[in-house]
Amino acid sequence: MTLTAFTRRSEAAAATERAEEAGSGAAQAPAVHGSTPSAPPRRSTRDADGLAVASFVLGLVGLLVMNLLLGPAAIVMAVIALARSTARRGRALLGLALGVADLVVLTFLVTGDGVVAWNFGG
Q1: Spacing of C-alpha 18 from chain mean position
Q2: pTM (2 decimals)?
Q3: What is the DSSP code string of the chain?
């Protein structure tokens, strides 16, 4: 019978609670089926990876539409991802560059049209 990782963790947690209730000072979770419990990945690293990807996507989409909103959002997400030491550093740097490019495109289009609202048609 194969146990999932969730079942293993819940069984290990239940065994730890039983050991603590029994008065054992140094309670250790027993290994289930000879496996050693592995530490789950840090949440902040996973979140930073998600922020890096989101900044890249927002920066890319922001080149075409809503660059006034998506550009700064991409920049902020990329900076946060880099501050949290993301594993996707290149993607975060691309998101940062695309966010800046969004704002540069916006300034060129606004100065050309003379209004904040711009369109491709004449």
Answers
A1: 36
A2: 0.60
A3: -PPPHHHHHHHHHHHHHHHHHTT-SS--PPPGGGPPPPPPPPHHHHHHHHHHHHHHHHHHHHTTS-HHHHHHHHHHHHHHHHHTT-S-HHHHHHHHHHHHHHHHHHHHHHHHHSSS---S--
**Cα-Cα-Cα-Cα dihedral sign, residues 72, 74, 78, 80:** positive
Closest CA to 77 of 60, 24, 42: 60
Which residue in this structure is represented by tokens 């998600």? 50
Amino acid residing at 110: V
pLDDT digits 0-9 by tens, 38-66:
655 556 678 889 999 999 999 999 998 88
